[in-house]
Give the backbone structure.
Amino acid sequence: MALDPKPAKLGTFYGVFTPSILTILGVVLFLRTGWVVGNVGLLATLAIVVLAHLITLSTGLSVSAIATNMKVGAGGAYYMISRSLGLEIGGAIGIPLFLAQTFSVTLYAFGLAESLRLFWPDLPMRPVAAATVIAVTLLANRSTELALKLQFPIMVAIGLALTSLVVGVARQGQSQIPLWAGTAEGAGFWTVFAVFFPAVTGLMAGISLSGDLKDPKRSITVGTLAAIGVGFVVYLVVPIVLVAGADADVLVSDHLVWFKVAAVPWLVFPGLFGAIFSSAVGSILGAPRTLEALEHDRVIPALPRRLFGRELGDSVALMLSAAVALAAVGLGNLNAVAPVLTMFFLTTYAVVNLVAGIEQLSGDPSYRPTLRVHWLVSLAGALGCLWVMALINPLAAIAAVVVEISVYALLRRRSLSASFGDLRYGASMSLIRAALLRMKRLPVDARNWRPNILVFAGDPNKRLELLQFASWLNQKRGILTVSRLLVGDLEELAPQIEEETQRTAKVLDEQGIVAFAETEIVATFEEGVLNVCQANGIGGLSSNTVMIGWSSKPERVIARLRIARHAALLGKSTILCRIASRRWSGQLRRIDVWWGGLANNGDMLLLFAHLVSLNHEWSGARIAVKSIASNAMTLEQTERNLSELIERIRIDADAVVLPRPEGATIHEVIHRESQGADVVFMGLQEVAENDEAAYAERLARLIGDLPTVILVHAAGPFAGRLL
């Protein structure tokens, strides 16, 4: 769907400045500025104006920085956020933003009806509000350019109203202006600030028309900053004029003080009514464009293009926006909803500031805005928006954030795909880089050891049980990497690397295994494992444990024993895993650890057994630490040593010391005692060169028909000191 089938025609003045300044110079200017200065006095009012505009200015600068760094498409703030933080976050902001823009049409329509009631008290509210919604919709449907150009007379009317006010006060000839005078029982500074702040939140009205602009980069920057600047000057001048024209009590009690002070009172009417009407026009122009952008990115379902056999064309988003606004008229009073809508706007501003700040901090080479803004300015603006949200209405702020988080969660479940990159990768890269550099300077100790396991799993679909066990051994405590080795010629197999990596990653996701997928081309399996072991990792964050599945072929077991010996030279431990098909999938009973002492991999055996028991799937399983006493004299001492060890290392396990029956081999004792276990942990010795074949044969007899067996060879600087 084309968001903008018609050529973009709007320039800076009509496309950005006009809708923005007319939304800024709205109902607060005419009906609340006097109340503000009457409550807190002139100097405090000017402080409020400066503080509010600092937050708005930071947002305007952030918007300008983002706009000058990308080709801005239709959708305004939603487009910028989604292209920076991804579709899910963009949608979480964009959908509530659309509702806020649409309901704002209704709010302004009711505002116009209420202002007319000041002069015609019996005027029916809902019909007038509905008529206003229909009028601005028809105007917007006729032509966006026409709707914006018709706002020029409104701007002139506001200018005439301001002139009439200044001239009226000047005629009074008051020589002294009270600086601090406010009513004796006036509202507090922050209460008044909360009332005033919505006056300066109109800067997004022009940005919403980004898809209609000839030159979005220039127009958004110049138009937005110019509107903020003009609004700042007006809000500095009007309080001074009002203080000079009326005392504090009158300013607080009489919202129509403009009409009493102005030189030509009737000139205030068109300015007041026009300001409210133009705000409704700005909202009805912005809402459909946000909706179309959401549809274009498939964040929301496609909009219907036909109704009762009639072609709706490109006006469907406008019609839907108008329908929502008219439905809201039926609520009669949106006072309860209005604070939440304000929060939606403020969260949009906060996220825009956050985007600009993170872009700058991430150091992404592609972030090269024409207008550079220091990250402190943007992040201060984001914090300022959040602070104002809490200040205005904490409950509404919480409600708005909950709604946006809920939308985000729903969109995450849909797994939206985008054809564009965003800053999340760059920001994550910066954080990872900073963390790695920090880790480089930190002391490394056994107490910081984590199971960073590198698994060589072959075809992932055929080794699901091995991958699951690797995940259980890792227990989300370290980094789990699944490597698929393709043995053969590099030139022939290189095209398969990406496909196989994605295939492995898909299997991991389907199984709920949190791991990184890799694919490497190697000449032989044994050489490839050792090469990948050496290359894996960065900046001290690398694999410390190699995990390989058992093989029924003796020559492959011999190769795995050689790998274990060479991996130990690289400071890496080795795990050989013989899976007894799904023996553990039923009701869990026991994890057996055959203890041969710390010198025989005992610390790592206990640690891995403990990590397995922490997994949800192994909840309730008991760890039995077993040892064989060579004679009756050593049995009691061994039992005492094991119990003390288990207590000291704080692992929930049972100590079991067994006497070796006369004439029985160790293999026979282990087989008899561990037949009922679900998994058996045993140590793996380091074998001298040329002794691998004999040891492989002994291992095959030892494993025999036992359930799942995990053979562990501890190596590295912390072997024997992990507990």
Summary: Residues 534 and 570 are 7 Å apart (CA to CA).
